[in-house]
Amino acid sequence: MSWPAGILLFVSTVVLMEGFAYVMHRWVMHGPGWFLHESHHRARAGNWELNDLYAVIFAIPSIVLILGGVQLGWWPGCAWIGAGIAAYGAIYFGFHDVIVHKRLPTRYLPKSSYMKRIIQAHRLHHVVETKHGTVSFGFLVAPEPESLKAELKRRGRAGVRAPTGERAFAEK
Question: What are the backbone dihedrals phi and psi of residue 92, each rounded to the nearest 5 degrees, phi first?
Answer without folding.
Answer: -60, -45
